[in-house]
Amino acid sequence: MGEHTVTSFDEELDAMDTMIRSMGERAAEMVDMATRALLTGDVALAQRVISEDRLMDQMQRDLDDRAVTLIGKRQPMGQDLRFAVGAMRMAGDLERIGDLAKSTCKRVGSIGEMVVMREPNFGIEKMAELARNQVNAIIDVYVGRRAGEIEEIRNRDEHIDMAYTSVFRELLTYMMEDPRKISSCTHLLFCAKNLERIGDHVTNIAENAYYMITGDQLPMARPRVDNVAEGIG
Predict the structure, then answer these.
(1) By the 8 A CB rule, do 91 and 23 touch?
(2) C-alpha dihedral sign at 32, 34, 40, 46
(3) Distance CA 36, CA 125 (A)
(4) Interior CA angle at 166 toward 162 and 169, to 5°?
(5) What does the alpha-carbon distance between residue 54 and residue 123 come to, in Å, rounded to a whole number?
(6) CB count, 10 Å around CB of 44?
(7) Burial class (CB in 10 A: 0-12, 13-18, 19+), 24
(8) What is the distance between the terminal CA atoms of the chain, rounded to a whole angstrom?
(9) Residues 31 and 98: beta-carbon distance below 8 Å
(10) In angstroms, what CA-CA distances link 73 with 8, 67, 76, 129, 183?
(11) What is the rounded distance in angstroms from the CA atom of residue 212 to the CA atom of residue 233?
């Protein structure tokens, strides 16, 4: 973003960039902690994530307040206006990622014996790694204004969708083979769906970031997975 005659305007925009980066880093960390809590049954770690979500909520409110104040005071146009409005939208998606991590942690105490089942756990671990890396990548590219890399990051969501479909099928198999596992598997299905939704929020962030930087929209068409698990959640 170009420099402005009023130095404080640049400082306000830079401060919003810093807030977005901080929210992105915290969101990725929450995804990581929530997955570790889920796979190890660590209730204390799960509770920590639940507590962290309150901070994410406050960070979103702070960024929204700053953006609204900037719009009212500076009356930005063009790229500056896109940035101010887009930052609020981006913060909303990052806050929602925190909500989904919290939702997973609320189920940790109910999973029980599922922590010893390697196949679905491996799939969920893979989904979490993909989601966490995608969050980190899009925030890094956005802050660096590297618009040329954004579409590829957005399209990585296909890999999360594929992993989710695999986990869904594995868990259905477990439930059919042993009805006693239905309750735990159902909780795990919802946790996997949370990770899939995180990928969707990163897609939103990517499309928003591209528009903020370039003023153009990313192409609507992108890779889609024939997802038999689409109706969960």
Answers:
(1) yes
(2) positive
(3) 8
(4) 140
(5) 29
(6) 8
(7) buried
(8) 39
(9) no
(10) 12, 10, 9, 41, 53
(11) 31
* The token pair that represents 125 in the structure block: 């671990």
Domain extents for the chain? 7-214
Q: Which amino acid is at 153?
A: I
Residue among 53, 132, 137 at smallest CA distance from 95: 53
pTM score, two decimals?
0.89
Give dist(CA 65, CA 6) in Å, integer. Answer: 20
The CATH code that applies to domain 7-214 is 1.20.58.220
CA angle 165, 46, 133 (to 5 degrees): 50
Q: pLDDT tens digits, the chain, 233 residues: what are they?
A: 555 555 777 888 899 999 999 999 999 999 999 999 998 889 999 999 999 999 999 999 999 999 999 999 989 888 899 999 999 999 999 999 999 999 999 999 887 655 556 667 889 999 999 999 999 999 999 999 999 999 999 999 999 999 999 999 999 998 999 888 888 889 999 999 999 999 999 999 999 999 999 999 998 776 565 555 555 55
Distances (CA, A) of 18 to 15, 24, 26, 101: 5, 10, 12, 22
